Amino acid sequence: MRPSRRPSAKVKPKLLSEERVSNKSVQELLAEGKIFGGCDKESKISNNSSSLVASDDSGQRDKILKPLAPVPYLSSEWAELAESISQNILNHNPNVHWDDIIGLDEAKQLIKEAVVYSTSYPELFSGILSPWKGLLLYGPPGTGKTLLAKAVATECRTTFFNISASSIVSKWRGDSEKLVRILFEMARFHAPSTIFLDELDSLMCQRGSDAGSTVGMGEHEGSRRIKTELLIQMDGLAKSEELVFVLAASNIPWELDHAMLRRLEKRILVDLPNFEARRKMFENLLPRKQKSSKPGVPQLLAQVDYDRVAEITEGYSGSDIRLVCKEAAMNS
């Protein structure tokens, strides 16, 4: 745990004894959470003027903590939660493009209309044409829902937050709600940004226990609180003009909470690949002649009847086809 802001004020004379820094500027830095304590080795005091100059890592940390400054009870606990999100979730460039995804032409076109065009041409989307704030990708597992979300982040040049249940669920009471709030605050600060909620059904299943029981009975209190906080933050996005998009993926959309489904206004089916898509996947993964980039490494020669393997793999997902190709390459 980092020291509180009070110890930081006590070590101020020691750190700034040779600097011409006014008390007012230091108090402002303390209020913004930019000075933590005497043990913080990432910060240093400038020797040429009257300002505090931070190292590259500290500057990145200050940028992460900036959206939390208005919170009146900002503490070292909130700072640590924000840093944990930045280390485990924040990805600036997934580097996945539309051409990297084989098939799914209809899904890609719908996503472009819903998200990409509104980012590229914001002047055209106002009033009833206001951009979608929530989008649900649903379909069988292994069909490319995560790849589509990363392609959105790359093509839109947005900051990408890849979220799963383990990222924002904590064993400590109250920390899960704080993590959700910090996540959305950081997304607003780094806008335009994309929050991808993978396996949404693990976070937002229907409230209550079994069908027919009283709503809320049999459900853990912590689970209800995190669902409520997610819904509140989604409402906040709908009422703002900031370019923050929420993409969610689920294999079982019928298990999702109805309140969350209403907030995910656009829903896109990511289905199993058709014959042409399967054939193209086999051609891409098992080419007839693959040149090796390293000298001395043998070339992979594939003798494959692409039409035949595409026909007999009906019902396979993209992930299944990749595993089949990997097994074939290992046995060749």
UniProtKB/TrEMBL annotation:
<dbReference type="InterPro" id="IPR041569">
    <property type="entry name" value="AAA_lid_3"/>
</dbReference>
<keyword id="KW-0067">ATP-binding</keyword>
<dbReference type="GO" id="GO:0000922">
    <property type="term" value="C:spindle pole"/>
</dbReference>
<keyword id="KW-0413">Isomerase</keyword>
<dbReference type="Pfam" id="PF00004">
    <property type="entry name" value="AAA"/>
</dbReference>
<dbReference type="GO" id="GO:0005874">
    <property type="term" value="C:microtubule"/>
</dbReference>
<dbReference type="InterPro" id="IPR027417">
    <property type="entry name" value="P-loop_NTPase"/>
</dbReference>
<protein>
    <recommendedName>
        <fullName>AAA+ ATPase domain-containing protein</fullName>
    </recommendedName>
</protein>
<dbReference type="GO" id="GO:0016887">
    <property type="term" value="F:ATP hydrolysis activity"/>
</dbReference>
<keyword id="KW-0206">Cytoskeleton</keyword>
<keyword id="KW-0963">Cytoplasm</keyword>
<dbReference type="GO" id="GO:0016853">
    <property type="term" value="F:isomerase activity"/>
</dbReference>
<dbReference type="Pfam" id="PF17862">
    <property type="entry name" value="AAA_lid_3"/>
</dbReference>
<dbReference type="InterPro" id="IPR050304">
    <property type="entry name" value="MT-severing_AAA_ATPase"/>
</dbReference>
<dbReference type="InterPro" id="IPR003959">
    <property type="entry name" value="ATPase_AAA_core"/>
</dbReference>
<keyword id="KW-0493">Microtubule</keyword>
<feature type="domain" description="AAA+ ATPase">
    <location>
        <begin position="131"/>
        <end position="274"/>
    </location>
</feature>
<dbReference type="GO" id="GO:0005524">
    <property type="term" value="F:ATP binding"/>
</dbReference>
<keyword id="KW-0547">Nucleotide-binding</keyword>
<dbReference type="InterPro" id="IPR003593">
    <property type="entry name" value="AAA+_ATPase"/>
</dbReference>
